Amino acid sequence: MFHAYVETWKLFRDLTDERSRLSTCVASVLDRRWLARRNVPWALIDVGCGDGALAREVVSRIAPGARPQQVELVDPLWPVCDRATWPSPDCDKVRQLQIDARAFGQLYSSGPPSVLLLVHSAYYVDLADIAALMAYESVESAVVVVNCRRSVFGDIWAITRPDLLDRLEKLWRWVEQCDAETLQVKASLSIPRCSLERILGFLCLRDVGKLSRAERLAVEAVVAQHENCGRIEYAMDLLTLKLKRAAKQVPKALRSWRRPRFESQ
């Protein structure tokens, strides 16, 4: 299951322009925050880092005087995090960690100001751990990226993963109470017919073979509705949270969330 998911995720990444568009927007957000504090040490904590490729690209796009002096690559799945590499001169102080709420207190209760980067990881990471991270004084802000509720992902999840859609709704209700800025980022995904089954599985976040006939037909109808000349346009919400205020408003419902189990696990 793990190997199949990673390979499909890599295929999805190769077929979409998401990483380039996201890294440009995230770097721009961080530039605005840190250029005014040029040469002030700070750390970027990428929670749900995967192989670290997005974090590398984000750092490379930040102006030299505003780049982080330290990068933390954190993932709930150690086999993913262990594969992360950092062949980049933009920041040579890089640490790879498996997420562990108990360790966070030792790591981030003091130290340089930190920014959390959570790109699509709110679907997988135990949000109780994220809430624990947000409470530490050194964590100043967070950049959170989630799929728009009204996009191909949201429409498909309403059919195949209502639990994930419910997590998004609860997250949004919390965000609306916080000091947050929202930016919409658009991307597109090409769907070669030879890879349709694997891409459908990624969009559904379920084993396509276990979908009922009705679910399969409904998913295919959604894809057809969003597809244009072999590509699907979709949108993501990029949220910038200022956590010194927001952390005090983390509700119990968020602190108690746990990573959902996938059907095929």
Radius of gyration: 18 Å
- Order of SSEs: HHEHEHEHEHEHHEHHEEHH
Label the structural class: alpha/beta
CATH 4th-level superfamily? Vaccinia Virus protein VP39
| CATH class categorisation | Alpha Beta
How far is the N terminus from the C terminus?
A: 7 Å
Global outline: globular
The count of domains is 1
Average predicted local confidence, pLDDT:
78
Low-confidence stretches: 259-265
- The CATH architecture comes to 3-Layer(aba) Sandwich
% residues in beta strands: 15-25%
* Subunit organisation of the chains: single chain
Q: Got a strand count?
A: 8
How many helices? Answer: 12
Give a structural overview.
It is built from 12 helices and 8 strands. Strands 1, 2, 3, 4, 5, 6, 7 and 8 form an 8-stranded mixed β-sheet that branches. It has one domain: Rossmann fold, CATH 3.40.50. With 265 residues, the protein is of the alpha/beta class. Helices cover 43% and strands 21% of the residues. Helix 1 crosses helix 9 and helix 7 crosses helix 8.
